[in-house]
Amino acid sequence: MTETVVTLVINELVQLLNHESKLLRGVHREVVNIREELESIQCFLKDADQRDLQVGVKMWVKQVREVAYHIEDVIDEYVLQRAQCHHQQGFIAFLHKIGYLLKNLKPGHDIATKIQDIKISIREIKERKERYGFSSSDQGSSSRATNVTWHDPRVGSLFIEEDEVVGIESTRDELVSWLVGGVSKRSVISVVGMGGIGKTTLTKKVYENESVKGHFDCHVWITVSQSYNVSKILMSMAMQIDQTKETAQGQIDMTDEITLISQLRKCLQQKRYVVVFDDVWKTEFWEIVKHALPCNDKGSRIIITTRSDLIGVSCKESLYDQVHKLQPLSQDKAWELFCKKAFHTEFQGGCPRELVRLSMDIVRKCEGLPLAIVAIGGLLSTKEKVPLEWQKLHDSLNYELECNPHLTSVTNILSLSYHDLPCYLKSCYLYFGIFPEDYSINGARLLRLWVAEGFIKGKKGKPLEDVAGEYLMELIHRNLVQVSFGELDYEIYRKYRIHDLLHEIILSKAEELNFCQVLEAGDTTSHGKSRCLSIHDVRENIFETSENSRVRSVFLFNISEMPRSFVVKLFRKFKLLKVLDFEDAPIDYLPQEVGNLFHLKNLSLRRTKVKILPKSVGRLQNLQTLNVMETAMRELPIEILRLYKLRHILALSHDFEIKSSFHSVRGVKIHEGFGCLKDLQTLSTIDDHHGGSLFEELGKLSQLRVLGISGMTVERGRALCTSIQNMVHLKILVVGSISENEIIDLQSISSPPPFLEHIYLWGRLEKLPNWILGLQNLVTLILFFSSLKEDALLCVQTLPNLITLSLNHAYDGEQLHFEEGCFQKLKKLTLRELNKLKMVEIGKGSLPGLEQLEIGPCPQMKELPSGIQHLERLKILDFYEMQGEYVLRIQPNGGEDYWKVKKVSTIRLMYRIKGERYQTYKLGDSHLLERLQGLPS
Question: Which among 334, 392, 500, 654 could disulfide-bond with 329, CB atoms 3.0 to 4.6 Å apart, if both were Cys?
């Protein structure tokens, strides 16, 4: 991560030299020298924060990081002072006109002094590096090279006892069957999953199975790991294949890779072989070794274990190859494994009643990760079985994972994934430490934050947000980040989280690097060294010792109350902020002082009680994102039209007093002239009150990716069509009518945006616009209050890439028919609030990929959709407030339609309680059956 910090500082130095060359005449050469020195050590810093660096090198890297932070502070303070001079207006400006030069001499003098100090510090760091002989080759040096015995923490996975194998029995049997049966073609199976999930354990049990041993002529097990040598791996393969051959080790060592590959191919050509490559980290590995494994049509098999989805996919080169994604243990299996380890010699392997609650909490913390369950259970087996001892470990589990020798193997194994990250991903990954444990963050929000922090390196022709999206996908493919909600949903709803144990590792690393500090209840002060401050409990004295120059980002979470004095102190203390995130905070106003935050790039007031933005926001010249979603704000101030760097305006007025779901949410008003904001990518949602000028302004925003607009009438809809045709980059379109009965007329779009992926229409439609049928890239179609009369499916069922379809108050017909062969890629279907719908018919062969189906309330429906039993991939079935008769037909005990859905893994029944909140029930729930007795049939 240090390399990332240095890179950001170098970029700031370049900008400073470009924009302030005249004022920096006295120190221009020194600034150039500092930049050149930093550039010279970038090579050394690449991945310099590896776990096993020598202590001296680690200390040196820390000093480089501290100097880089100091340089950033000096630059930002200087730029702020310069900006404040320019902000003087009116009579004050007149009084200071004569002394303008003197006003600018002070910041110039200050930066000259500080740059001299920095130059001395850089020189000392460079001399220290040379004195101790550090070189770029040292960055890979580890304890293995310093006469310290190094132990691979993954060794234990190869020697798991049979009684510790829990929850993988069916997968083990499936893999054994695949190895000894199936086609004669050579085939590869990749076992993929996050660190500690049991890939090696599972594969070892399969490899050692008696039927597998007897089926193959030769067996090879190779542990690859992060730092592998291809020649040594090929040599090891050769020695395992032909153990009786008396070949001198020296002769093997002399053999080059091409010769070794040729020899292996020749040796294996007539054999049925099984080869395991355990713990593969790079796609290039398979590209080399696959040439040594001939496709000999003898039923040979190869197993690859890896933490990376991309590696698994890259090894799938034919129809016979497979990728198996290993899932965490279910809660029941996790509990079974924990009890086996913690109580294997006592209490007949069961948990005493007084320890159940604490034990369950500990198991939940492990989130189905066998490595952690076994390690923690093993540690607890050595402790006295009383609640006090259990409570101690429960309360200090984070510390124990870091320091207890019984548990450090867990941390070490999970940390390997962090150390394998390229430097550009490390800061992005550590950013998850800002958010509370088990927190799910909206994906679009996360990407905007990464851009604001400067983590994203630009690529020609791509917006920074798109590059950030690529970074996020890479973390997901490495199984470090999980999609926690909305995997099949409309893009803006998708959320992400990380495993609780990975969260603890991130927090430890972030604290070590002064990346972020989390202030929870009981923490009274900030140490003032971190760049990010995550406040989970408001205490005014936390600002007393923190250094105002250090903090660049402030987040507030789970705050119940926030006095105005706290807000005022925050703005006075942290003047160099880039990110200020008040989402969900109990704040009802924004002080004028917000305008002093010249460097601010991201300001979020989402779901706060703020109603008005102060005029001083017009001074936030670097603001990129303004988020006032789900507030009571009705209008944006005219001053935002001065913010030419704005990329995202997210605004949605929510009136919680209005009960109507149609009228409670609407766009906010924006002043005429917003077409000057040329960098806007997101403008959602604005309310049309301009008349014709609105669409003229929209036509100037050629970079828009997301457009949301409410208040549409028939005439305005036609005018909007002209503007939309010019938005060639548009990906998301949200359009709402002025009232529930007003028609949205979007028929006149002749050439829709080519990259349009998501459409959200809120209001009546005479019929679905014809141009939608030609959208080859359309992924999501969501319709609210559309009142379509004809069968709503006929016109969209052939869309080639549609994944999500939602009809909510959107169809007035009595039946829906899914014809054979339709909706080939649809994964999520929502049928909500369809009051006249009586029957749904699913033809055999339709909806072949459907995974999630939501129905209800549909008071006229008396039975399940016919043909629902044909949906082989259906995993989630949700029913909302369906009639008692309907639900009784699908109950497991005697329900006549239960056979149709018994293979669906998750069936949930939702009913409202206390107005808005839903209570969720499962099939067979006694409380549900009692409730059904009171529902109409």
Answer: 334
Which residues have CB under 8 Å from 487's CB, separation 6+? 494
User: What does the pLDDT average to over 638-655?
Assistant: 91
Kindly state whether residues 263 and 289 are assigned to the same domain: yes
- Taking the C-alpha atoms of residue 888 and residue 884, their distance in angstroms, rounded to an integer, is 6
Neighbours of 759 (CB within 10 A): 22
How far is the C-alpha of 568 from the C-alpha of 720, rounded, in Å? 43
What is the CATH number for 472? 1.10.10
CA distances from 359 to 167, 365, 394, 591, 763 (A): 19, 10, 8, 47, 51
Does residue 277 sit in the same domain as residue 383? no
Band of pLDDT at residue 403, cut at 50, 70 and 90: confident
Cβ-proximal residues to 113 (8 Å cutoff; 6+ apart), any chain? none
Pairwise CA distance, residues 38 & 493, whole Å: 41
Question: Which range among 164-173, 233-242, 820-829 shows the weakest confidence by mean pLDDT?
Answer: 164-173
Pair (216, 352) in one structural domain? no
- Do 451 and 338 lie in a common domain? no
Interacting residues of 158 by C-beta distance below 8 A, sequence separation 6+: 200, 204
33 assigned to some structural domain: yes
In a shared domain, residues 249 and 171: yes
Cα 402 from Cα 414, distance rounded (Å): 12
When mean pLDDT is compared across 97-101, 118-122, 337-341, 736-740, the lowest value belongs to 97-101
Same domain, 137 and 15: yes
Structure tokens at 234: 């090929």
Question: Both 434 and 480 in a single domain?
Answer: yes
Q: How far from 299 is each of 187, 264, 316, 568, CA to CA, in Å?
A: 8, 17, 16, 72
Q: Which residue has the higher pLDDT, 146 or 904?
A: 904
pLDDT band at 104 (very low <50, low <70, confident <90, very high): very low
Q: Can you give the pLDDT at residue 469? A: 94
Measure the CA–CA gap between 533 and 577, rounded to whole angstroms. 11
- How many folded domains does the chain comprise? 5
Q: Is residue 512 part of a domain?
A: no
In a domain, 789, yes or no: no
| pLDDT tier at 103, thresholds 50, 70, 90 | very low
Beta strand 706-712 with 732-737 is parallel
Q: Which residues of 873-883 are buried (b: 16+ CB within 10 A; e: fewer)?
A: ebebbbbbbbb
Domain boundary among 498, 520, 538: 498
Please give the C-alpha separations between residue 174 and each of 188, 321, 334, 775, in angstroms, as whole numbers.
14, 14, 21, 41
CA atoms within 13 A on the CB side of 784: 14
Sheet with 187-192, edge to edge strand ranges: 218-223, 273-280, 301-306, 187-192, 322-325
Residue 858 lies in a domain: yes
As given in the structure block, the two tokens for residue 369 are 């990760």
Q: Which among 390, 412, 434 is the end of a domain?
A: 412
Cα separation, 206 vs 204, whole angstroms: 5
Q: Is the peptide bond before 685 cis (omega within 30 degrees of 0)?
A: yes
Structural domain containing residue 123: 2-145
Q: Check: pTM over 0.85? Answer yes or no.
A: yes
554: Cβ–Cβ under 8 A, 6 or more apart, which residues? 532, 533, 535, 570, 574, 577, 579, 580, 581
Residues 244, 108 share a domain? no
